Amino acid sequence: MRAFSSSPRLVAMRDLAALPKAHLHLHFTGSMRPTTLAELAAAQGLRVPSALLDGVPDVPADVRGWFRFQRLYESARAVVRSEGAMRRVLREAVQDDAAEGSRRLEIQVDPTSYAPHVGGLVPALEIVLDEARLAQEATGVSVGVVVASSRMRHPLEARTLARLAARHVGDGPGEVVAFGLSNDERRGDTAEFASAFAIAARAGLPGVPHGGELLGPEHVRDVVTHLHPRRLGHGVRAAEDPALLDELARAGIACEVCPASNVSLGVFRESRHVPLRALIDAGVPVALGADDPLLFGSRLVPQYAAARVAHGLDDAAIASLARDSIGASLAPETDRRRWLAEVDAWLADPGSGGSAAPAGSAGPTAPVVAPAAGAAAR
Which residues carry out catalysis? Predict the structure, then answer.
């Protein structure tokens, strides 16, 4: 088990944007910049909810929830109707991750949502893969693509996507690195998606399904039993069952923890209630993610700032989270070793863009943005 503690004394607060890290939980449409959403909508004469354009106002805890945010997500997705729009969304997502110190981005996409506008499933995925390669060349950020099916659709569609993903498997620039299952985890029968994950696994694609955010430990067990995941999207509700945490730790199943998402969807009332320390102390690998910045109002660095401020993690613990994210990534081993060395260098240099501040302070990074909106069919 790992146990981290903070100290009330003055400590060096290193720049979280300079911290080398991997971003393993980001959805395609949800990564869109609000300005891009506005421009794409205006070009097509479409109206989108003001909540997506006005900084996503804070939503009272008693009205948070999945369905409100699903409507917002569908409104955002409706403006992505061309190859050019798809390329722009992907390119800007990678640029934004580069600005936040990401060495690796594994972005999730369900090409079904965009296929009608670009000639089908195959061209929809190939557009994403091609632009991922171009964005990697332009930014230096290693980009892998996760093809994710939706629980809202029939399991047979998941098999179709798994077969499509299998045609593009690899760990090179812009290749498919994993197969996922997203959307409202209360929908669908997990076991019915097992055959799709088996198709992906036979092709060498690890499973990275969502589980353990809207539903509790029993659902996490269901996902682990039937889908055999390498990582869990979210997984935070596993903290309600210490025995399950031990099982995840022993199996090395990483949890992609997205604090802003958890709060915005009403899973936890405040960021400090997200059971980050429980996961860490149990030895479960944790990779922080932004999930859907467009809807939740904050990208990756504020998730690390929340770990620092709301959970009191010092920079050694923050560096351990970054190491977990890199270790849980599906990047080539040589790249992961290089990035881990860069994390060590960040920790070894107290002056890496930071300053002296009381432990628990946000330091020189951007403040934690109050999350307020949610995600849906990605």
Answer: 213
